[in-house]
Amino acid sequence: AQSVTQLDSQVPVFEEAPVELRCNYSSSVSVYLFWYVQYPNQGLQLLLKYLSGSTLVKGINGFEAEFNKSQTSFHLRKPSVHISDTAEYFCAVSELQAGTALIFGKGTTLSVSS
Amino acid sequence: DGGITQSPKYLFRKEGQNVTLSCEQNLNHDAMYWYRQDPGQGLRLIYYSQIVNDFQKGDIAEGYSVSREKKESFPLTVTSAQKNPTAFYLCASSISSGSEAFFGQGTRLTVV
Q1: B22-51 pLDDT, tens per residue?
Q2: Do residue A100 and residue B97 have CB atoms under 8 angstroms apart?
Q3: What is the DSSP string of B13-54?
Q4: Chain B residue numbers touching A104 (CB-CB < 8 A)
Q5: In which band, very low, low, confident or very high, does the pLDDT at B1 lie, cut at 50, 70 and 90?
Q6: Alpha-carbon dihedral of residues B57, B62, B64, B70, nearest 10 degrees?
Q7: Which of A1, A36, A64, B21 sits at 20 to 30 Å (Cα–Cα) from B8?
Q8: Chain-centre distance of CA B22, in angstroms?
């Protein structure tokens, strides 16, 4: 069965600094990978997804992620963060076979201060 | 306006009572999911359904029940057997199971 580990529960950064949120997954088959963002008391919004093809994936709000199959990682990056990026971020994985659901990590809280 | 609607946004119940959370989608998606969110625990899968009249247990199904009588609807019942039901519940749907999921705004259930 697949699993997801988000390596940092909290990441504090200053505005305009770069940030990386780390995600590792475990699966015995090929996978789809996702990053979602959640603002307080709201649902989740998709930031970006990796299905196949280029390992560098660009998403909304200036975020990007790189799929590394050998290291089973899918880290999320942004070169310069804004106060408005303060939120909780979730990495998710699903296996390329019928009948599976997305499995989520425990989340990383990104706090951006001025 | 396509999307997923969860209602109500806030729900209060007394301990020992069953409660049903509503989830409706008009995206024509086949798959639907229920997740539970607790602080520091991420999203944990309760149940999911790939097609009408079929559903599978997730990692924390005990104390919950679902039905999928219509493609658009996937209600979740939190029964009195659920030991710690107070949580934020999120419903989602996708074109097929395992593909990109779209989420509702969630229902915060408080049991007192």
Answers
A1: 999 999 999 999 999 998 889 999 999 999
A2: yes
A3: E-TT--EEEEEEE-S--SEEEEEEEETTTEEEEEEEESSTT-
A4: 35, 42-44
A5: low
A6: 10
A7: A36
A8: 8
Tokens of B98: 């395992």
In chain B, DSSP finds a helix count (H) and a strand count (E) of 0, 11
Inter-chain CB proximity B98 and A90 less than 8 Å: no
Please tell me the distance from the alpha carbon of residue B47 to that of residue B70, in angstroms, as a whole number: 16
pLDDT at A19 over 80: yes
Structure tokens at A61: 């709000």
Residues of B within 8 A of A9 (CB-CB) are 40
Structure-block tokens of residue B21: 């959370």
Does residue B56 register a pLDDT over 70?
Answer: yes
Walk across the sheet containing B76-78 and list its strands.
B4-7, B19-25, B76-78, B64-66
